[in-house]
């Protein structure tokens, strides 16, 4: 990769903006198509929107494509759940067994541990209503993913001061962004509800 110091941040921000536009646009379309009374109780809003636009068969196709997309994302999540703990273990932040790899350089112990942990979460959040269980897991995921963001935002001004980057307007600008990000993250944390916060902790 040429000039990764510049390319990676640009790709990250651009990807985030594109994803945000797609999410906001698709959610706006769904809210405009599906009646509110039906949308609040919908377990598959994208499929319901497709049914309103193109008929029953289109809804089934969208549901099938959603399932395929979930299976397609498994490989990415496997990499994340193995490499993130491995990197943390190498830096002494996680237990050392997360960094143990097999002959193929795969952290199998870490994968097994996270797999068992995820299975336990599914069992403990079991519900007669699959949509309700999915909602609890999603809220837990939001809660767990927001904590690292808060830590990073709090650490930003500290690191900038430690590296003598606290001169000029740039420092004030980044501190302002950090405060906005922290406030939004706290708002999202409390908005996830008591159950998600309980399971997240």
Topology:
Blueprint: H1 4-33, H2 36-39, H3 45-54, H4 56-90, H5 108-124, H6 130-162, H7 169-191, H8 194-200
Helix pairs in contact: 1-3, 3-4, 4-5, 6-7, 6-8
Family: Belongs to the amino acid-polyamine-organocation (APC) superfamily. Basic amino acid/polyamine antiporter (APA) (TC 2.A.3.2) family.
InterPro entries: AA/rel_permease1, APC_superfamily
Subcellular location: Cell membrane
Report on the architecture of this protein.
It is found in: Cell membrane. Its main location: membrane. This is Arginine/agmatine antiporter. The chain has 201 residues and is mainly alpha-helical. The protein has 2 domains: 34-124, no CATH class; 131-201. It is built from 8 helices and no strands. It has helices spanning 4-33, 36-39, 45-54, 56-90, 108-124, 130-162, 169-191, 194-200. The longest helix is centred in the middle third of the chain and has 35 residues, at 56-90. It starts with a helix and ends with a helix. The model has no long low-confidence stretch (mean pLDDT 83).
